[in-house]
Amino acid sequence: MHFDMTWERREELIREEERAEGREEGREEGRKEGREEGRGEGEMIKLIRLVQRKVERAKVLSEMADELEETEETLRPILDAIQEKGGDQPAEEIYAYYKEKSLER
Question: Which among 32, 52, 77, 103 has most CB atoms closer than 10 A?
């Protein structure tokens, strides 16, 4: 079987293959970034839940920071969001509010 390909067609096929490889690399990078972002969001929601429990137990910020091994500077915006949004709200809603507020700063 004889296969004759013009130079232009060969170059076109190479470009198509390179684009396909680039798209796949981009998708993989996007998936990796998404996983990392999801982990970060999950960790923050967990921290919000822990702070909510501390609020329910009437702990002050310094006690929360000590017990959770976090800084007061880290917990202050979370505590503010809980107080502004209402401590009985789901942690996911408080996280969304916290994220929105931190984008405003």
Answer: 52
